[in-house]
Amino acid sequence: MSSPERGTYEAFVPAEIATRRFALEDDVVAAVASATKALARLSSTEPRLVSLNALAGALLRSESTASSRIEGLAISQKRLARASFEDGGRHRRDDKAAEILGNVEAMEQAIALGVAGKKISVEDIRGIHRTLLRFSVDRKIAGVIREQQNWIGGNDFNPIGAAYVPPPPEHVRPLLDDLCRFIARDDLAPIAQAAIAHAQFENIHPFLDGNGRVGRALIHTVLRRTGEAVNYVPPISLVLAATQKSYVAGFGAFSSGDVSGWCDLFAAATEWAVAEAERMAAAIEDRQALWLERLGHPRRDAVVRQLIANLPGQPVIDVGTGTRLTGRSHVAVQSALAQLEEAGVLRRLNERKWGRVWECDELLDLIDDFEQSVSTPR
Q1: Is the pTM of this model over 0.85?
Q2: How many domains, the chain?
């Protein structure tokens, strides 16, 4: 193609994959099988102290924030939790946190599509993108399939010298239709299917912004749709952030036809993500055990114990939220929150007599430290 400015560039048009056969090398088949067993182990894990929903919520936030961090959007779990709590997330004053919360909600939407089990459509993918960007400065392009050429790297004026130039606009819709048909297949190992779907989506690059985050959300659509990740979201983006050079190189390998190399990298990332999810769950439950010890080991049906089980999913809390989570009375929840504050588990964020809000600093700092330990480039 010619650029009116000063030269030529090549746009990459990936081959369609809806009916393509993928023969992986034997060692990669073994790697995919090993990662599949790891996912099955994670899905069947019954937490001892934390509620399943609370642990799932903590892992979902970690995966979503890591996916945003890859794109240069990084904030603390504390800042994110506070922004999420404010007015139920309806009136967000922290723009950066709001953008990352858009990613959390987009991830939830992608997972819900997988759980529903229906055939994924282009409109579904547009919907994920619309949710992702609805709080961002780029909300005007939310859900809009591009009608102009985009590129990665190089300069802001034209694609010459860019690291990657995706297909011209007229190819985008047919390639997305093909991708949706591929995701509907049931003859592939789910981890390999998720890997290929993710790489193909990034090759198509159908939006002017947000492609990486939508593509990583689609990983979890595939894993849920195929029943490979039933209860938890393995923090695959955390691992990919830690190996970003290999991650980018893996896309290049896939584009060049090395599907086995890409699936091998993805399977290793998935197995590593499972191990890290298990490590985070253990660290959270160890901390909860310490809190219960501070409180004198309350009985199993105590409200304070129920709140501790739910804190990983709701680290910023008030009486109304505690009542909703436990099904107990306002008076009982108020008393339990006061106990947790006295024990140093919660810290009060305001001094209002009515409408008090508490925050679990220890838990939020623990998750921040966990994410930092995993996602530090190595």
Answers
A1: yes
A2: 2
